[in-house]
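ok new one. same drill as before - structure tokens go in, u give me an amino acid for every spot. 853 of them this time. try not to just spam alanines like last time pls lmao
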């Protein structure tokens, strides 16, 4: 379409939105527009409507599949265009940045009620990523809602003053300052809510401004706001309100004070929409849906992952989900450095009794982390790009006394470093550290150029001179402040630094905090976010156990988001489905009080692939599994109806083995206790239930190795010999000598080892479908002999030799999809939907028969 037609479309779009098609055409023709041009404008309008309805991101679950009233920005809008102008000035690209934000915020606004409805009380949830721009998204949602007539905007900005101030400043900058005549404020930068004398001055019909109120989730503050709104009730009938709950899982769910006060505030607003924003929605998804509470009964939205965002999966990798090819799941970046377990008592009191008088000392790993931070800051000064601030986070404890105890050791290290800058030995050590880190994570992989050590050395005196150690907690006066020029700071803190508050220019983290729940763990990770101009430089020091927990959490996150997306396509809504959350043997999903209404969610092995990736490496444990494999192969060879030998491929398949022998193997083979999905008891019970129903009574037992005869063979039984597989472990700086995580065992090709035909090019989905066609009632068990040395290839920088005391037996199980119902297993929790009563809505024909039809 020409520029002229583009302009005509923008002019008449509101008319097309406001009238039925026939009436809109008549009105267009009254403006003297030719029928041919009218038709082109109509076609453009239809395409725009289709685009809005088919937005691929973010995906949403919508109650009742209701049609949207909001179809996107219009030319007359003022608030949203102002936001776009500011983002452009900040360097946001049109694609995918601004366009993605436009589409995702339009999606959220489209799920709200029309502001002119007589009454509504909406509850929704927006699921983002940690440090991914959620504030920008809800600012955009507020701007678009304001452009369409929402009047009162209440933002619940966490529980700390720092985050409330930061949020107030952002909203004033992006909403109020560009259009000051359109806004009134009930709160200020340093002023939380205090009751105003005359509500009419804000909500009376003579006041057309939008009202902004940014408050902490503090009982005293919210109680004052609720009482004031109650007094203003005469003016609120015509006041559509949008309540944004930032960090919606914190303090909101299952609290005796905050939760009822939010509901009370909504009770005083006849037209209100509550939208929670969080990157850790576990508690919100477990609220009792049948109670009068804040369960997101109307919609759940998955925000798309922004380009260039450092998230859990990017940094830690994750495990393959059902239906995924494990070889396509990345290990993550080589940016995690290991803190030995022996170092932890030096930086964190191990019991409450140890807190009083605790004095930390700078361990080898903490010193390396700090020195690397100074090197990164110097290198970033050489580059001269990106965020002007430079921050390091030290998070070892929630206790403020422990934070404060770090000040003296950090200042002492700082003083010694300043004195040592002329020392050749000191500079040599820094050079070795810099060269090692920049070799492990090449700058070129991130579109950057490595800064040489010679280039950054002249910057080090200035870096040390400007670096401050800040103890940032609820009792300290010296806080992080990014408003008064570039900051170089080592921040020691706990809860005040763990929620919402952005640590500007964060490049190095030292994290050994003891945590017990998914949401706490995820929110503590301030190293997530954007690293423009220094994407190659961030590093995080933590224990190996914490790194494994984050890898598990990345898997939970991906699976949770996939649940939301899948259920959207199956005509479900938040009152008819509950998102499942995978459990972990050492971590709670969320605080116990927030899980009191949760139930164990049924999951099924049907259609799934289960594989081992955790192993002990001691000889006794491994020999027990070798014995179990020998026994299974011997009995399979004797009882199989047919044996397929493919020694040239290193493969054997024993067909139609009775399931009893598989159950015997599962009772003898030992899975690692860190693998909840590999629970031999649950798997065996599942097989028994399916066998009683007439399925899984026969199994194919396969061996997958390499061709034999090259000196690296493994013999399972007479005439059953294959070459050993190579499976290196994930590299850790301080590995547990009796633990290995190989991450990937089974390939897509292996999952089709017992299928006939050309299966080499089949996708995961096609293999599942082909199995259902060829072997609908037959399970597959695959044995993998793994070489105990298993050296990694040179390209696998995140891998280390397996270095086991004996050869390892890996196991993969492939279950066909059930045709007639299924038996289920545990290992997930979800909200309890059993008490939800859903009315079946009938068509309303009153308008059809009325004069408005």
């Amino acid at each position: 379409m020409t520029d002229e037609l583009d302009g005509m479309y923008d002019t008449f779009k509101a008319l097309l939105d406001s009238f039925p098609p026939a009436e809109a055409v008549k009105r267009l023709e009254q403006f003297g527009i030719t029928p041919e041009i009218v038709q082109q404008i109509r076609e453009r309008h239809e395409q725009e409507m289709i685009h809005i309805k088919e937005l691929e991101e973010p995906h949403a679950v919508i109650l009742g599949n209701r049609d949207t009233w909001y179809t996107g920005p219009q030319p007359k809008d003022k608030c949203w265009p102002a936001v776009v102008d500011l983002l452009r000035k900040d360097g946001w690209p049109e694609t995918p940045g601004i366009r993605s934000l436009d589409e995702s915020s339009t999606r959220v606004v489209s799920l709200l009620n029309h502001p002119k409805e007589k009454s509504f009380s909406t509850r929704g949830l927006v699921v983002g990523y940690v440090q991914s721009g959620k504030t920008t998204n809800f600012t955009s949602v507020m701007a678009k809602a304001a452009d369409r007539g929402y009047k009162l905007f209440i933002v619940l900005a966490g529980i700390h003053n720092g985050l409330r101030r930061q949020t107030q400043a952002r909203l004033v900058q992006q909403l109020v300052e560009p259009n000051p005549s359109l806004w009134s404020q009930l709160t200020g930068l340093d002023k939380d809510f205090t009751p105003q004398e005359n509500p009419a001055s804000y909500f009376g019909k003579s006041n057309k401004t939008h009202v902004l109120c940014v408050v902490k989730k503090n009982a005293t503050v919210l109680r004052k706001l609720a009482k004031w709104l109650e007094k203003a009730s005469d003016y609120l009938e015509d006041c559509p309100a949008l309540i944004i709950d930032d960090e919606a899982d914190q303090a909101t769910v299952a609290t005796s004070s905050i939760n009822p006060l939010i509901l009370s505030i909504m009770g005083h607003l006849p037209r209100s929409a509550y939208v929670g924003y969080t990157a850790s929605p576990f508690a919100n998804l477990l609220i009792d849906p049948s109670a009068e509470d804040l369960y997101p009964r109307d919609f759940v939205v998955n925000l798309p992952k922004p380009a260039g965002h450092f998230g859990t999966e990017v940094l830690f990798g994750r495990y393959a989900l059902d239906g995924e090819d494990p070889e396509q799941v990345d290990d993550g970046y080589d940016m995690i450095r290991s803190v030995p377990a022996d170092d932890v008592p030096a930086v964190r009191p191990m019991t409450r009794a140890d807190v009083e008088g605790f004095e930390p000392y700078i361990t080898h790993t903490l010193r390396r982390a700090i020195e690397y931070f100074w090197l990164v800051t110097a290198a970033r000064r050489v580059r001269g790009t990106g965020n002007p601030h430079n921050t390091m986070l030290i998070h070892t404890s929630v206790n403020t006394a422990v934070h404060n105890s770090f000040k003296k050791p950090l200042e002492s290290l700082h003083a010694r470093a300043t004195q040592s800058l002329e020392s050749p030995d000191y500079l040599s050590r820094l050079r070795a550290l810099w060269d090692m880190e920049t070799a492990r994570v090449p700058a070129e992989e991130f579109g950057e150029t490595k800064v040489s050590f010679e280039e950054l050395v002249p910057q080090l005196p200035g870096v040390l001179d400007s670096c401050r150690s800040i103890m940032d907690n609820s009792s300290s006066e010296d806080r992080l402040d990014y408003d008064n020029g570039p900051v170089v700071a080592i921040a020691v803190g706990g809860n005040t630094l763990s929620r919402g508050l952005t640590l500007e220019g964060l490049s190095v983290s030292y994290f050994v905090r003891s945590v017990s729940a998914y949401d706490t763990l995820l929110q503590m990770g301030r190293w997530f976010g954007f690293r423009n101009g220094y994407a190659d430089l961030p590093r995080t020091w933590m224990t190996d156990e914490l790194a494994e927990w984050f890898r598990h959490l990345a898997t939970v996150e991906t699976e949770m988001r996939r649940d939301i997306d899948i259920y959207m396509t199956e005509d479900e809504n938040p009152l008819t489905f509950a998102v499942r959350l995978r459990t972990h043997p050492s971590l709670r999903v969320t605080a116990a009080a927030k899980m009191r209404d949760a139930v164990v969610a049924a999951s099924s092995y049907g259609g799934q692939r289960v594989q081992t990736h955790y192993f002990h490496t001691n000889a006794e444990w491994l020999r027990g599994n070798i014995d179990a494999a020998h026994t299974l192969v011997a009995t399979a060879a004797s009882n199989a109806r047919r044996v397929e030998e493919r020694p040239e491929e290193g493969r054997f398949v024993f067909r139609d083995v009775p399931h009893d022998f598989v159950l015997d193997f599962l009772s003898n083979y030992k899975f690692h206790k860190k693998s909840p999905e590999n629970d031999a008891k649950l798997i065996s019970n599942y097989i028994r239930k399916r066998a009683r129903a007439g399925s899984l009574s026969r199994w194919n037992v396969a061996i997958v190795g390499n061709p034999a005869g090259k000196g690296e063979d493994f013999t399972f039984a007479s005439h059953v010999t294959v070459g050993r597989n190579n499976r290196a472990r994930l590299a850790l700086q301080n590995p547990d000598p009796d633990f290995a995580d190989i991450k990937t065992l089974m390939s897509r090709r292996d999952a089709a080892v017992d299928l006939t035909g050309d299966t080499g090019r089949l996708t995961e989905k096609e293999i599942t479908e082909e199995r259902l066609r060829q072997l609908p009632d037959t399970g597959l068990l695959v044995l993998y002999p793994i070489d105990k040395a298993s050296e990694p290839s040179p390209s696998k920088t995140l891998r280390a030799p397996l270095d086991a005391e004996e050869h390892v037996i890996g196991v993969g199980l492939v279950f066909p999809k059930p045709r007639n119902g299924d038996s289920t297993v545990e290992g997930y929790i979800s909200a309890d939907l059993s008490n939800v009563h859903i009315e079946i809505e009938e068509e309303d024909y009153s308008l059809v028969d009325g004069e408005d039809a």
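Residues 544-568 form the longest helix (25 residues). and btw Residues 50-58, 837-853 have pLDDT under 50 and may be disordered.
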